[in-house]
Design a protein that fits this description.
The chain is of the alpha+beta class. It contains ten helices and 16 strands. The longest helix has 13 residues.
Length: about 325
């Protein structure tokens, strides 16, 4: 794991992201249709741009987080997993009435491989033979490309804990991608390394650090996922009420824990203040950069101040603001 981690921080690694879900939305009304449903400003997207967003219930709880990419002729939705994709696809389909919108499930048609690390732009530029264009992509930028005459899409990402790119490629061309990555000495990161990178960056994962009972403000994703300047969307009333009347205060919130022992907490472990249970661990890893266990946990709001001492399984932990590490 340490070699893969070092490669991610110093060179590049690949990450198999094919277990994520992929939907394409086409039709003249695709942007306005999604704009009315999702939390971010979809109408503001121009071809070649994208954003992070969330899809909420009327009660303001999360159906999913997702990435939205406007490719010029279709919008690509990148979702956390297959099960979530199925739920979102069914709900979106039910809400099409007179709009010129068509939905397509392209999860099986495309593989998804992330390449992250300082050398990622050069390597992805080789994959799609567009070195300058790939290097110039802004965060959440996207472009159409080709790999061995097969269709491909490239998006710029930061949700893997290290800056890089997602490459969506037709299944038939996946072996070509793997051969090129091997020739460039880019190895696939193991699951544990991927988790360390993510947790060090304080990035919550759906169905791990947030779920269908989570309000986005509890997970701390609102700066990236919610537009405060757009019109109505599903769940907006609850979000605005908390932000304006409650001044953004929620009963619990996701934060970091730095462990003072060498014990890595288990997911679901109780966080205690004395004899009082005040929260729950959602993700925990051994941080290679910090050389100690770290965790993300939901804590009651009275215990969120950085530096607060708590305990997990009898071991001392210090409340730490997210992210643990800041990467460019």
């Amino acid at each position: 794991m340490r070699k893969a981690y070092q490669d991610a921080r110093e060179r590049a690694v690949s990450i198999n992201r094919s277990t994520r879900g992929r939907i394409v939305v086409s039709g003249a009304d695709r942007a306005s249709y999604l704009h009315a449903l999702l939390t971010n400003d979809i109408n503001a997207l121009k071809p070649g741009t994208g954003c992070y967003s969330a899809y909420l219930t009327p009660q303001g709880r999360m159906i999913s987080d997702l990435w939205v990419y406007e490719l010029g002729d279709v919008i690509l939705l990148d979702l956390p997993d297959i099960a979530t994709k199925d739920v979102v696809l069914a709900k979106l389909d039910q809400l099409i009435f007179s709009e010129d919108v068509q939905l397509g499930d392209v999860t099986d048609a495309f593989a998804q491989v992330a390449v992250v690390g300082p050398d990622a732009a050069r390597i992805v530029g080789i994959l799609v033979d567009q070195a300058d264009t790939v290097a110039a992509l802004p965060e959440n930028g996207c472009l159409r490309a080709a790999i061995a005459s097969g269709a491909a899409i490239v998006t710029r990402i930061k949700d893997a804990g290290e800056s890089g790119f997602d490459v969506y490629v037709e299944q038939a061309q996946l072996d070509v991608v793997r051969r090129i990555l091997t020739s460039e000495r880019v190895e696939e990161a193991d699951v544990d390394t991927v988790d360390v990178l993510r947790v060090e960056a304080g990035i919550p994962l759906f169905h791990r650090d947030m779920d269908e009972n989570t309000i986005p403000l509890e997970a701390g994703i609102e700066p990236r996922a919610i537009s405060l300047n757009k019109g109505c969307y599903v769940g907006q009333e609850v979000i605005i009420r908390v932000l304006h009347r409650g001044h953004g205060r929620v009963a619990k919130k996701l934060t970091g824990l730095s462990m003072e022992s060498e014990a890595v907490p288990q997911t679901g472990a109780a966080v205690m203040s004395g004899d009082r249970e005040i929260g729950t661990v959602t993700s925990a890893v051994w941080s290679i950069a910090l050389d100690r266990p770290i965790a993300m946990a939901y804590l009651q709001r009275d215990f969120l101040e950085a530096g607060t001492t708590v305990s997990v399984d009898g071991h001392v932990a210090i409340v730490t603001s997210l992210p643990f590490l800041t990467r460019q």
